[in-house]
Write a structure and sequence with these properties.
The chain is of the alpha/beta class and about 140 residues long. The protein has 5 helices and 5 strands; from the N terminus they run βαβαβαβααβ. The protein has a 5-stranded parallel sheet, with helices on both faces. α3 packs across α5. The two termini are about 30 Å apart.
């Protein structure tokens, strides 16, 4: 199996920088990159059948929008990069899900952009980059 690097991507400028840095590192290492996008989705256990059906419909729509608006454009923009690019989209808690993706694809390294949150929100809830740095199953590079 060839080397793989996972890059967290949400369309932000920070995540675009992380993708570019991961591509440069992948070229040097002869690795492929997996661009991963996580849609936050909290489980509800007490929904009626009608609510579950509507929720499932919205979930499909969100996946379709994310594929069209985020994943296809970044994959197209990297088609001439000389690096094999795969994409992965999942629902869940962002840091936990990115760590799971890294395990599932056998990644050797992860990359994520840093948003620079330094206010009360980041102190109370934590940041994705900070959480991922603590739980990542492989080396995690936080790109400023």
């Amino acid at each position: 199996m060839s080397k793989r690097f996972v890059v967290g991507y949400d369309g932000s400028e920070e995540s675009k920088r992380a993708v570019q840095f991961a591509v440069s590192q992948a070229k040097s290492a002869g690795a492929a990159i997996v661009i991963a996008h996580v849609l936050e989705w909290s489980p509800y256990s007490f929904l009626t059948p009608e609510e579950l059906e509507e929720r499932h419909k919205r979930r499909k729509e969100e996946l379709s929008r994310a594929e069209t608006a985020l994943m296809a454009p970044i994959q197209d923009s990297l088609s001439d990069s000389g690096v094999t690019v795969e994409t992965e989209m999942r629902y869940g808690h962002v840091a936990d899900t990115l760590a799971k993706i890294a395990k599932d694809v056998g990644a050797e390294q992860m990359f994520i952009g840093r948003t620079g949150e330094s206010g009360l929100t980041a102190r109370v809830f934590g940041s994705v980059a900070g959480s991922l740095a603590q739980i990542a199953p492989v080396a995690c590079t936080i790109v400023p």
